[in-house]
Amino acid sequence: MATATFNGVVIAQSDDIEIVEGNAYFPIASLDKTYVVPSGHSTHCPWKGNASYWDLEVNGERAGNAAWYYPEPKDGAEAVVGRVAFYPVVTVER
Questions:
Q1: Where are the domains of the chain?
Q2: What is the phi-psi region of residue 82: left when phi exceeds 0, alpha when psi lies from -120 to 50, beta otherwise?
Q3: CB hemisphere CA count around 72 (13 angstroms)
Q4: CA 69 to chain CA centroid, nearest Å
Q5: 89 with 66: CB under 8 angstroms?
Q6: Strands 23-27, 18-20: parallel, antiparallel or unpaired by DSSP?
Q7: pTM reported for the whole predicted model
Q8: 3-state SS, residue 28
Q9: Which residues of the chain have pLDDT under 70?
């Protein structure tokens, strides 16, 4: 079981984790959307495609652009389809 926590609260938990480029990708369905705020930020990865971001807000603490996902990953990036990863401000334990 892998667990992602921010500010002392579990925000995602799953046995179904994909590791891509050293990042643990959780199923988006495992993310507790109570703590998610759309950020409007996006980036581009040459092989995965365009990433969208969420801020996380837990107990009054906000982490900007702390979670990202690929709404429409490129061919070859199937491992990230329907998944979310986190910047190091989120603690991931496997």
A1: 2-93
A2: left
A3: 0
A4: 6
A5: yes
A6: antiparallel
A7: 0.95
A8: helix
A9: none
pLDDT for 73:
97
| Residue 60, CA distances (Å) to 36, 57, 70, 76 in order | 12, 6, 27, 38
Q: What is the predicted pLDDT for the residue at 65?
A: 98
Is there a contact between 12 and 4 (Cβ–Cβ < 8 Å)? Answer: yes
Q: Count of residues for the chain? A: 94
Cα separation of 21 and 12, whole Å? 19
**Dihedrals φ, ψ of 33, to 5°?**
-65, -10
The CA-based angle 71-94-40, given to 5 degrees, is 25
Domain 2-93: homologous superfamily in CATH? Domain of unknown function (DUF427) (2.170.150.40)
State both tokens at 48: 């995965």
Question: Which residues in 24-56 are b (16+ Cβ under 10 Å) and which e?
Answer: bbbbeebbeeebbeebeeeeeeeebbebbbbbb
